């Protein structure tokens, strides 16, 4: 029988791509999401998941649920027999987390504790957690491997990822029947090649590529390049951008790893290649055939000069490797942006 996988935050950008890959791989995902970052579609489904249904021609099981609601979680686990959980739900805006630290710790930390407690109570002890390269803080060396010291990041969002990692590690140490894979994402961009699902930031995008895409499509006038005096080839920040479909496939590989009773494992999900802001602008101009205007402004607080992964461990132990390069990431992002100039909402 097909395995049921709970996907928390499964209506979001990364979540919806994971749900699609799970369906393609023969799993039965059950999605919970509280619509904090997702647009409602018809049939009580988030629009992102309605689109996933159209792509795979299969229904998606969905329930509106907030991970901080312990009673609702209990109810859910009574209803379904899950073999594992992909835990992606959480607040994720770095700047906002500095303004609202308690809110971030409440949702990300207590939400995760409730989830882990409920899992434990129902004997579901397999989890894949959506962590972030932000846990490395300012890199002491590059590329970043999984042994690089962690806990160095300065904002509550990043710290919440680090604290959750520590909680899960301690849990796996204390109870040997727990298995966890902590995935440290680098910078996910792009969209499914159908152009039907993609990233849909509400308000002004915080991240580079959604902003660049909105400039290309004419929704914003110009990009602000946050500093060109970093110690990089062209002075702008360098990051490891990874296609969201590659990232989603990494979750399927992680689920397989849990089957080996792996205990707690940690993997970078990146490509190993860094690109600067200006290289990204150029790649997007090529993919879109449009000019992307930009102005150089001051550095953004908390940004590091360069950050890219050593992805070798994931390749060795998960048999996973990013397949898509920069051109494909930008082409797919552009297709999504062009077909959905206002994202999932209709106006
Ligand atoms: C990339 C580069 C910017 C916007 C952040 C979080 C991380 C993760 C993803 C989220 C940097 C530059 C950006 C703009 C710019 N978490 N930039 N103009 O900073 O690597 O990671 O988002 O859930 O935790 O820290 O990604 O896309 O914001 O920035 O010049 O308008 O683009 O300075 O060099 P970042 P990003």
TrEMBL record:
Q: In which pathway does it act?
A: Carbohydrate metabolism; galactose metabolism
Reactions accelerated catalytically:
UDP-alpha-D-glucose = UDP-alpha-D-galactose; UDP-N-acetyl-alpha-D-glucosamine = UDP-N-acetyl-alpha-D-galactosamine
Gene3D superfamilies for the chain: NAD(P)-binding Rossmann-like Domain (3.40.50.720), UDP-galactose 4-epimerase, domain 1 (3.90.25.10)
Q: Which UniProt keywords apply?
A: Carbohydrate metabolism, Galactose metabolism, Isomerase, NAD
Q: Identify a single GO molecular function assigned to this protein.
A: UDP-N-acetylglucosamine 4-epimerase activity
Q: Fetch the Pfam families from UniProt.
A: GDP_Man_Dehyd (PF16363)
Taken from the UniProt entry, a GO cellular component term is: cytosol
Task: Give one GO biological process term.
Answer: galactose catabolic process via UDP-galactose, Leloir pathway
Domain (NAD(P)-binding) spans 6-332
Which cofactors? NAD(+)
* Keyword Transcription appears in the UniProt entry: no
E.C. no: 5.1.3.2
Q: Which family does it belong to?
A: Belongs to the NAD(P)-dependent epimerase/dehydratase family.
Function comment: Catalyzes two distinct but analogous reactions: the reversible epimerization of UDP-glucose to UDP-galactose and the reversible epimerization of UDP-N-acetylglucosamine to UDP-N-acetylgalactosamine. The reaction with UDP-Gal plays a critical role in the Leloir pathway of galactose catabolism in which galactose is converted to the glycolytic intermediate glucose 6-phosphate. It contributes to the catabolism of dietary galactose and enables the endogenous biosynthesis of both UDP-Gal and UDP-GalNAc when exogenous sources are limited.
Q: How does it assemble?
A: Homodimer.
NCBIfam families from the entry?
A: galE, PRK10675.1
- The name under which this protein is listed is UDP-glucose 4-epimerase
**Originating organism:** Pipra filicauda (Wire-tailed manakin)
**Highest classification ranks of the organism:** Eukaryota, Metazoa, Chordata, Craniata, Vertebrata
Q: Provide the gene name from the record.
A: GALE
